[in-house]
Amino acid sequence: MKKKFYLAHLYPDYLNFPRDSDNPNFLKRRAIETGLEFEIDHLTIGDLFDPEKYDFVFIGGGADSAQRKVSDDLIKIKGVSLRQAIEDGVVMLCICGGYQLMGQRYVDLEGYEMKGLGVLDLETIAEPERIAGDLQFEADLPLADRILSGIEEHAGRTYLGKNVKPLGRVIQGSGNNGLDKTEGVQYKNLIGTYAHGGFLPNNPQIADYLIKLAKQRQGFAMP
Ligand code: GLN
């Protein structure tokens, strides 16, 4: 039985919104505590993504300018293999700017339209008034404690299509767009959210949930 798990952290040198990189490190710590071995690879522009290797993928948030820099590589260099991995159930966490880039497109504040990976049925349009502050939502996931929290900081408004489900329902803050009370997305084993501030350290039940999904995918017997 496989004991070592691999996580690909995408574009840590570009999408490096403060504290987002705490997420892969926290996941690693938690996985090691449950007896697994865990290794994190940093993949940046030009690096190929090996869909056979990775159990987890993480992509964080960043400025519009950083999103522009990585979007071409995301589609042209990593696109086919990353899409394949997501469709095959790789466990993936996407925060804010990284979440936006999984959708069909992101139109930034200057009106520049970036194509996303296109694996998620959603799109994001930026508006001049930034959304910033505490975010609390109730996750639509099988967790004992479903109330999750974080800090949101985005200009983009994300609108979900019919083929994806929201991650949860907003209790405090704006979430995806400030209008429909949805927050984040879930699709197969991918979770996207606007919650910064160390999402997994603040909500360790999600880290454990992601580890459980990855173990299930590798055929571990669950209690
Ligand atoms: N640039 C994106 C926006 O403003 C994402 C910001 C972020 O990741 N914090 O919506």
Secondary structure layout plus pairing:
Layout: E1 4-10, H1 22-33, E2 37-43, E3 56-59, H2 64-76, H3 79-87, E4 91-95, H4 97-100, E5 105-107, E6 113-115, E7 122-139, E8 147-160, E9 168-172, E10 182-183, E11 185-187, E12 190-193, H5 199-202, H6 204-217
Parallel strand pairs: 1-2, 1-3, 3-4, 4-12, 5-7
Antiparallel strand pairs: 5-6, 7-8, 7-9, 9-10, 11-12
Helix pairs in contact: 1-6
This protein binds glutamine.
Polypeptide structure, described:
By secondary structure, the chain is of the alpha/beta class. The chain has one domain (4-217): Rossmann fold. 25% of the residues lie in helices and 34% in strands. It has helices at 22-33, 64-76, 79-87, 97-100, 199-202, 204-217; strands at 4-10, 37-43, 56-59, 91-95, 105-107, 113-115, 122-139, 147-160, 168-172, 182-183, 185-187, 190-193. The strands form two sheets. A six-stranded mixed sheet has the order 2-1-3-4-12-11. Strand 5 and strand 6 (113-115) form a beta hairpin. Helix 1 packs across helix 6. The radius of gyration is 16 Å and the shape is globular. The model has no long low-confidence stretch (mean pLDDT 96). Glutamine binds at residues 17, 61-64, 67, 96-97, 126, 153-156.
Bound molecules: glutamine
Q: Oligomerization state of this entry?
A: single chain
> Per DSSP, what share of the residues sits in E-state strands of 2 or more residues?
25-35%
- Classify the secondary structure makeup into a structural class: alpha/beta
